[in-house]
Amino acid sequence: MTTDAIETVDPDIDESYADDIDDGPYVEENSGQVASHVGRDMVQNVHNWLGRYQAARELSETFVRETIETFVERRYGPAGLRREEAAGILRERRYVLLVADAGTGRRTAAVGLLGGVPSPRREIPIDDDEQRLLPVNEVPWSSYGRSAYLLTVPPGSRNGRLRELLIAYREAVEKRDSYLVVLVDRKSLERPEDVPGFTVLTVTAPAHEELLSQLLDDQRARLDVDTLLKTPPLPAMLEGATPAQIARLSRRIRDAAVDPQEPLAEIARKSVQAYQNWDEELVAWFEQNSDPRTRLFLIALAFLQGGQATNVLHAMEKLAKKLEEPANVRGGIGAPGIRQLAKNVNARIDDEHRIFFTLPSYDVAILRYVHGDQSKAFRTNLWSWASDLPIRRGGSPNARVAGQVASAMLAVTLALPGADAPEVRTLIERWWGYQTLRPLVVDLMTAVAMSPEAGAAMRGRLNQWASQSGRVTLLCAVAAVCGGALADAYPQAVLTRLNNLAGRGIDVVTDGVVEAVRSLWGRPLHRQATLRQVVDWAAGQDQRHDAGLRALAALSETPDRAGFLLAELAGDAERQTRLVHALSLLFTNEGPQGEFREALFRWLDAAAENPAYEDLITDLMIRVGGTGQGASVRLARMSDLLYDWQPLARDGDAPAARDLRGRLNEQLHRANPLAGT
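Structure for HEAT repeat domain-containing protein, as requested:
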């Protein structure tokens, strides 16, 4: 086994950007970032975005309630039903196939149905890597009794025998006396009415104007929304727009309507230009502004909007040095100063010397434009500079600036066409060595991996790193992400990546894998799948064997937790067989050592306290002994283990343990082929 330490962080790096950035007033309105309102702590930006998205994926009570409260009415076919009537069909008949194409607001329509049945509600995960439905026995079904489930069938031809799978899902839900809504597009299932047991419904897309009006409903006290939506060029933008595009347009309108006294025609114009990423304006701006100092100030401000203007200027000069621009770009009395630069880049400086763009969503548009207009080498240098912005010489990183950089990374990643996330790696490798920045790194990676825009690419990248990367920082970061919120949306994908990490045989990475397993075990929905994975590792003879034993030990840290593990194991005959194989390997060799030996003691403690586990422990031990070569050695080592667990000297203090040891020893003696010789 190899052991690689995480790279140490030099506190005295040559260039420290954050030393000159004060901790003055924070930005409250983060216009143009992912969250329109992020509070006073910029580090919360990514976390807040992730929380909202996770609530949508988990169909939380709050999310469903808010969806119903803002629901734009649409008709459910074939009879043109209103939402309440269609929800009544779900309550009565339990199983609904909702046939609609992606991009029509069908998921919101499904949530509208689920809002009519009792909670809890769950979204059934799929095999994300293969884009197909999970086998029914691998689905993390709710343990709360009657529930309502949403299943989205992946498009394409890789679903196999879809009709039979849907019948199996319905039967599994029926056994749980629950509800099921299946979202399927018209191409994936030619004759949905032929799937027995389901009621087939269709749904229309919401009216464009009504949807946009509803999304802006909370703005009516300060803005004439109805007149604004009729103001050119907004009506033209709604023609052919999808619900997701309309939602994005509503956010741009919010960003543009900072001053409700501004003419509606100007708000409408800015909204559309922001929606179109200010492409025309930025093309013209870069044609007219060839001065490198002005261009670099524009880019630095895109990262640090809302900060002190002098800090943005300082960061810009460091960016010029990073890009090896001529020395005169980095300052001098002949170069444009802050106020001239602010004017040149459409920015304003307030009374507290903070600097803001005057155009809505301009910061993200700039980064998007630069990514599409400059070389890969430029982008690499840009994000290398950005990753250094929070780092201070000899002190803790500036968390607020790190939050701004992470927010910019998330925003531009989601804004890019054909979204990918190669530059996320730069932030991971630069920041992972700082304990205070690790939660932000995990949140950023998770947010990108769960996003509709870049999620598939990022999840693929996580798997590539887990399998192939030699960078321990990346491997540890992937393990941390797999133990977090990503598992709730993509449990199968998470276990696949942890499996690859467990096979690397790097101690510090295995530590991360064990910690991720411990976290997954704390989520009841994931316990069965997690136990299957961990036992399979322990039963292997490669690097995963050690990871499996360590993970089992981590899941048995106390007698109570050991009891939970044994309870899960008791109902899984296949896992018992795999565990017997793992223990046979262990007792054939030198026997259990260290933390796993202590875990076995806690299994015995649990069996002594709860007789329900004694039969399981007895059966496992007898099967581990087995017959044939080495049987007597294994049985003898297990007997020795029993006396190490409960020494004769402590028999008077623990009569239950003494009696259990006696009964188990008797069974081992009977099973020993050499006992009578």
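The first helix runs from residue 44 to 58.
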